[in-house]
């Protein structure tokens, strides 16, 4: 009798994580899944690891390993010291930081105001929303944009990298659909108490919208930090190049960072120097990613469904 | 109307005949008319008589309208005026003339595109890339979503999700740099091959395999991100359906085929339609970064053609014509795709932006 009770039904052994109706995964199935997971992780993680490792590795190891190392045996900061001893990279970082911080602040300001104002049935609300949606469908194109920037005298100005992107259609939709979810009664009661719309937005709506503001802000920041082509198009002055353009010309196109550009003689192995440039472009994204990742799926799905 | 406080103005705006203490409901609609309006609008489409006159609405909403000003200004300057700037596609524009002085040439620039072998190359490459992407990229996020959805320990699942979303946030410059460092002529793989005494393989510079390479890059960067929408759809599948199917003796693969995939079908159809609507946009920075290495014969797409013929080559009008033609056809295709999606009963517009 006990033997009968203890005997498990085939494929239906109890597991706390698996519902009773699900069969026990076969070995082939599990290993296939594990292979996919490990493979995908390696495809994404390995390049990042190699870039970091090589940037810290010493010259001998790099030469010995044929250019790339998986783990630095004698980690040092020579590449970074060389990179930051000249003003090329410091300047590029300054430019990127400036356009990212100021650009995000301006974009958030513009987007929040427009999204909030159009999230209520107010005068001109509907046509303005349609106008934004139309820009998502049809964009002017590179050449008219270039001529416009030129006409405004923004060629070779960092504002050419900030202002045109100050209203992103997708971010607008995400913000607006969030604001539309705030109950109208809340806002109406504040109006009855005599609060101005500006005050309602600032003291009531924004504190309720911290998460969505953070996500949209990070979307803007990542977008500005990553943008490369607009700098190539609008900036002729190499002194104003942001990090991405520096990365492109010194790593992808393999232009050598001459002593005069760095300000010092190059001491580190060029390979580790190049990898250090990659790390500089990559690190800020890796640093904000955990914050971004916590909220973005929700924001994305809201924006996608309610658009 | 004498200058009164806001409160009083709105009181005057209230529908006549309501006097004394109003009920809370009428109070709010009197105050704003916000909630009353949309209903009134949809009811009386044929006679769009606004309950509240413009002047009163202005008094009520001017602060909100003021808030729209920065956004509208940005839109005018960097979207709508440039759209008007496309007029140079119908002109023989030269940088030393202003747009108002340039002579009109009608559709000459558009016709001229079809005599330009570079444009025809760009068009062909765009189509080849779009089809390659459709066949090779499109299924990957679905498969990935199925794998992620079946990962059982919550921790592993979350970590894996974080890893596969990450590349979406890296710039194309970084992505191409990674590929160059790994697969390029002096990259990791080829250096290893050399150390082993074998010849190198031109992964990154071979024009004939470039569509494949470009699609692999796209998969690396965006397949994880594109998975989100499928994961969301998977999470809405009723678990009791699986349970019932299992009770009826359906195994793992049968449940996948008869429960999971039918649940995903609407979203797959929708995204497929939208992708086809967006077929002329295969990406831009990705190709401009590799055009020099692979050559324009394989890596020139419509967007890069606009840049090289217009900004670099100096034929501004031809570039603008190509850009405008692409923009109009794309917009029509997207609009058509959306209408099609609506026919399938999906709430479509802008869902494509997820990918």
UniProtKB/TrEMBL annotation, chain A:
Alphabetized Gene3D superfamilies for the sequence: MetI-like
Membrane topology of this protein: Multi-pass membrane protein
Membrane-traversing stretches: 34-57, 88-116, 128-149, 161-179, 200-225, 273-292
CC terms in the record's Gene Ontology section: plasma membrane
Principal subcellular localisation of the protein: membrane
Localisation: Cell membrane
GO BP field: transmembrane transport
SUPFAM superfamilies: MetI-like
Alphabetic keyword roster: Cell membrane, Membrane, Transmembrane, Transmembrane helix, Transport
Cited Pfam families: BPD_transp_1
Residue ranges of every copy of the ABC transmembrane type-1 domain listed in the record: 93-292
PROSITE patterns: ABC_TM1 (PS50928)
Family: Belongs to the binding-protein-dependent transport system permease family.
Protein name: Carbohydrate ABC transporter permease
Native source organism of the sequence: Arthrobacter wenxiniae
UniProtKB/TrEMBL annotation, chain B:
Subcellular location: Cell membrane
InterPro entries in alphabetical order: MetI-like, MetI-like_sf, UgpAE/MalFG_permease
Entry keywords, A to Z: Cell membrane, Membrane, Transmembrane, Transmembrane helix, Transport
An example Gene Ontology CC term for this record: plasma membrane
Domain (ABC transmembrane type-1) ranges: 123-337
UniProt xrefs under Pfam families: BPD_transp_1 (PF00528)
Main subcellular location of this protein, as a coarse class: membrane
Comp. bias (Low complexity): 12-28
Source organism, top-level taxon: Bacteria
Membrane topology of this protein: Multi-pass membrane protein
Transmembrane regions: 65-90, 127-148, 169-189, 223-244, 256-277, 316-335
Region of interest: Disordered: 1-44
GO BP annotations listed: transmembrane transport
Family affiliation: Belongs to the binding-protein-dependent transport system permease family.
Protein name: Sugar ABC transporter permease
Phylogenetic placement of the source organism: Bacteria, Bacillati, Actinomycetota, Actinomycetes, Micrococcales
């Amino acid at each position: 009798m006990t033997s009968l009770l203890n005997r498990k039904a085939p494929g239906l052994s109890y597991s706390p994580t698996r519902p009773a109706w699900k069969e026990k995964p076969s070995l082939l199935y599990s290993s296939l899944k594990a292979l996919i997971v490990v493979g995908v992780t390696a495809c994404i993680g390995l390049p990042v690891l190699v870039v970091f490792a090589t940037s810290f590795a010493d010259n001998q190891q790099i030469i010995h390993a044929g250019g790339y190392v998986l783990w630095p045996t004698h980690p040092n900061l020579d590449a970074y010291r060389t990179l930051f001893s000249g003003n090329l990279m410091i300047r590029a970082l300054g430019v990127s930081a400036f356009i990212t911080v100021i650009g995000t602040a301006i974009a958030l300001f513009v987007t929040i105001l427009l999204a909030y104002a159009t999230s209520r049935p107010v005068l001109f609300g509907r046509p303005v929303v349609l106008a934004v949606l139309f820009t998502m469908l049809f964009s002017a194109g590179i050449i008219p944009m270039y001529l416009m920037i030129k006409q405004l005298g923004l060629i070779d100005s960092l504002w050419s990298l900030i202002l045109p992107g100050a209203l992103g259609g997708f971010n607008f939709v995400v913000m607006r659909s969030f604001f539309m979810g705030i109950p109208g009664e809340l806002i109406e009661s504040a109006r009855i108490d005599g609060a101005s719309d500006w005050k309602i937005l600032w003291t009531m709506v924004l504190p309720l919208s911290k998460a969505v503001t953070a996500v949209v802000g990070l979307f803007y920041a990542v977008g500005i930090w990553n943008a490369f082509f607009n700098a190539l198009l609008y900036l002729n002055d190499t002194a104003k190049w942001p990090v991405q353009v520096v990365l492109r010309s010194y790593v992808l196109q393999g232009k050598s960072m001459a002593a005069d550009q760095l300000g010092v003689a190059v001491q580190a192995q060029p390979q580790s120097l190049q990898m250090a440039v990659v790390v500089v472009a990559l690190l800020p994204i890796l640093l904000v990613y955990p914050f971004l990742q916590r909220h973005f799926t929700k924001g994305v799905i809201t924006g996608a469904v309610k658009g | 109307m004498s200058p009164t406080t806001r409160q009083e103005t709105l009181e005057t705006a209230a529908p006549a005949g309501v006097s004394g203490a109003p009920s809370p409901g009428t109070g709010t609609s009197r105050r704003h008319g916000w909630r009353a309006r949309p209903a009134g609008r949809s009811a009386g489409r044929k006679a769009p008589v606004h309950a509240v006159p413009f002047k009163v609405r202005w008094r009520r909403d001017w602060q909100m309208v003021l808030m729209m000003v920065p956004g509208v200004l940005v839109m005018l300057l960097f979207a709508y005026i440039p759209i008007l700037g496309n007029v140079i596609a119908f002109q023989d524009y030269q940088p030393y003339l202003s747009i108002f002085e340039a002579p009109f040439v009608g559709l000459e620039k558009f016709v001229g595109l079809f005599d330009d072998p570079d444009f025809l190359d760009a068009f062909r490459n765009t189509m080849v890339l779009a089809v390659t992407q459709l066949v090779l990229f499109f299924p990957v996020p679905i498969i990935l979503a199925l794998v992620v959805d079946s990962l059982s320990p919550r921790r592993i699942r979350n970590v894996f999700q974080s890893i596969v979303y990450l590349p979406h946030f890296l710039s194309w410059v970084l992505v191409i740099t990674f590929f160059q460092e790994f697969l390029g002529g002096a990259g990791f793989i080829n250096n290893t091959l050399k150390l082993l005494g074998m010849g190198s393989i031109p992964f990154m510079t071979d024009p004939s395999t470039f569509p494949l390479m470009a699609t692999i890059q796209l998969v690396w960067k965006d397949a994880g991100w594109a998975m989100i929408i499928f994961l969301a759809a998977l999470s809405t599948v009723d678990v009791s359906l699986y349970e019932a199917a299992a009770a009826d003796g359906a195994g793992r693969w049968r449940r996948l085929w008869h429960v999971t995939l039918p649940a995903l079908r609407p979203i797959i159809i929708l995204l497929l339609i939208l992708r086809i609507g967006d077929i002329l946009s295969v990406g831009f920075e990705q190709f401009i970064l590799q055009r020099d290495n692979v050559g324009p014969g394989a890596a020139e797409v419509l967007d890069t053609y606009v840049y090289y013929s217009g900004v670099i080559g100096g034929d501004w009008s031809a570039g603008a014509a190509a850009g405008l033609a692409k923009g109009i056809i794309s917009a029509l295709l997207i609009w058509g795709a959306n209408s099609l999606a609506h026919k399938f009963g999906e709430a479509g517009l802008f869902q494509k932006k997820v990918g």
